[in-house]
Backbone:
């Protein structure tokens, strides 16, 4: 069943000024409950604008966002309720931490949602566990944490609202490779337990190919492709013309195929590649 | 959206006023403000107004922008003229209880209103045609003599430049943080005054933190480029007076002469 839909969604910045810019142009799509959607595109392709329309932070200039089949702007006064259902984690979310302790900061969303004391405590601790923050850290000031921990705390602040749709805008930007892998793994673990829908904006094709069920490719405000990673990453030339690329391992496998090696199309992860290469060598009797 | 707020209303252009030396512009602005208050009858004020309108026409800025800047102070104009209307002496032309309106009062109200409008127009003319950096540059140059009194002119100018530079940056940051807190269900629109102020805490704290972080980063960046104050520092753009600037000074002198002549030889209406 589709949980979130976009219908002829458009957004223009600075309407009626010399700086008018169409950021999102006529996007139509439908996303099913429990899907992980990767969102890729060059800087300025409208990804962030699109993401912010999903939870009503910006109002589409035309078109609609449907949540469970209902326009989220049906009743503009109730738009806050939508924001609890569609959680949004901004880029560099650590800059939004403000409260005295990490615990209080994570509980900001649940408090706004109107949960009572026990519920808040439960949901905060659960969210902290999902992102791997220990109980000891919860009583610290958010400004005393390390960069990676701050990022986790900020993401926990959104997860704590228990949204049905979670939008993450480059959650791993600026983290070291180990921190990046860990955070992604934690997000995916959260997804597997909660079974919610996730939108994840990323510049790392490797990350996206590993976790996404389907990928949205945006270019100059248009939705160019919306398909499985396999299909999307088979269109190397099209992606490269948009300033994007395919995962490195996909590219290597593709080059091997062009050289005449018998390797199947659409390999996205190193594990897959390893498996295929070993198979190939075995077939040729070299292993 | 908060981003739409325009601070520092510089309008890039190539008009006569744009090409003037910013120092001359500032000095002439001060001169014109003095002129406006040295007009004692309608004829003198007329000369002054004509000069200001000439400046506006030459400024290559759409007249709509000037109207916009006047819109802000319309309340002030109304209040002052209202007060002045009742202050005149002489025969009342309209009377209601102890309030009386005299012809002199009406004249005075018009006179004061025109003065205020002139003040705003000529100041806007400066801010529209001069970029903030040019402005601080010129202020630095003009304040140089104050060094005798051990006033750190360069440092003050540098602080002004940095402050101006970071206004849009901080506005953008505020916008971002507000969105992020709204996404967490922060309610900033509803409720009374106190509730609204309280609702700003989640925005103000991260904003302060980030302002301090930026200040620290900027300080490090400046030190890395061996910045150590204004002593012995040369400038990329040195300001030179051009014939145009002398012309403008001449024009201002002519206006001053006109005002003085009007004041002396023409009758005062009020």
Residues:
């Amino acid at each position: 069943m589709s949980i979130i839909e976009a219908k002829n969604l458009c957004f223009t910045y600075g309407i009626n000024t010399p700086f008018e810019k169409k950021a999102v142009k006529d996007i139509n799509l439908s996303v099913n409950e429990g899907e992980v959607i990767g969102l890729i595109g060059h800087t300025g392709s409208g990804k962030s604008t699109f993401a912010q329309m999903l939870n009503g932070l910006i109002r589409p200039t035309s078109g609609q966002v449907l949540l469970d089949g209902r326009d989220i702007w049906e009743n503009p006064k109730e738009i806050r309720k939508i924001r609890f259902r569609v959680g949004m984690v901004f880029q560099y979310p650590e800059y939004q931490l403000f409260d005295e302790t990490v615990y209080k900061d994570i509980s900001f969303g649940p408090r706004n949602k109107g949960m009572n004391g026990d519920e808040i405590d439960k949901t905060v601790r659960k969210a902290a566990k999902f992102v791997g923050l220990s109980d000891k850290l919860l009583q610290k000031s958010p400004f005393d944490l390390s960069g990676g921990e701050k990022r986790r705390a900020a993401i926990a602040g959104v997860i704590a609202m228990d949204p049905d749709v979670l939008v993450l805008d480059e959650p791993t930007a600026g983290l070291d490779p180990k921190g990046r892998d860990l955070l992604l793994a934690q997000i995916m673990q959260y997804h597997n337990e909660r079974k919610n829908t996730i939108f994840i904006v990323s510049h790392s094709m490797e990350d996206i190919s590993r976790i996404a069920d389907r990928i949205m490719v945006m270019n100059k405000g248009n939705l160019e492709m919306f398909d499985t990673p396999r299909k999307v990453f088979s269109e190397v030339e099209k992606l490269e013309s948009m300033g994007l690329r395919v995962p490195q391992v996909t590219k290597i496998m593709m080059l091997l195929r062009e050289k005449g090696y018998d390797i199947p199309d659409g390999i996205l992860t190193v594990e897959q590649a390893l498996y295929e290469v070993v198979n190939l060598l075995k077939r040729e009797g070299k292993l | 959206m908060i981003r739409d707020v325009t601070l520092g209303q510089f309008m890039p252009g190539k008009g006569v006023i744009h090409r003037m030396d910013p120092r001359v512009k500032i000095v002439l602005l001060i001169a014109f403000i003095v002129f406006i208050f040295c007009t004692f009858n309608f004829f003198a004020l007329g000369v002054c107004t004509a000069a200001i309108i000439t400046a506006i026409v030459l400024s290559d800025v759409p007249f709509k922008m000037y109207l916009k800047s006047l819109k802000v102070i319309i309340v002030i104009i109304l209040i002052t003229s209202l007060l002045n209307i009742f202050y005149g002496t002489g025969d009342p032309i309209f009377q209601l209880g102890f309030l009386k309106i005299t012809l002199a009062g009406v004249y005075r109200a018009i006179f004061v209103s025109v003065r205020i409008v002139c003040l705003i127009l000529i100041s806007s003319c400066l801010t529209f045609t001069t970029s903030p950096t040019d402005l601080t540059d010129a202020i630095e140059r003009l304040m140089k003599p104050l060094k005798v009194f051990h006033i750190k002119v360069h440092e003050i100018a540098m602080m002004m430049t940095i402050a101006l530079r970071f206004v849009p940056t901080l506005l953008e940051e505020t916008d971002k943080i507000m969105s992020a807190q709204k996404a967490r269900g922060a309610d900033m629109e509803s409720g009374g005054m106190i509730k609204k102020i309280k609702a700003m805490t989640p925005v103000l704290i991260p904003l302060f933190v980030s302002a301090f972080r930026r200040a620290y980063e900027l300080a490090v960046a400046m030190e890395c480029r061996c910045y150590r104050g204004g002593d012995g520092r040369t400038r990329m753009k040195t300001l030179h007076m051009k014939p145009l600037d002398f012309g403008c000074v001449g024009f201002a002198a002519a206006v001053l002469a006109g005002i003085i002549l009007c004041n002396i030889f023409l009758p005062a209406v009020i």
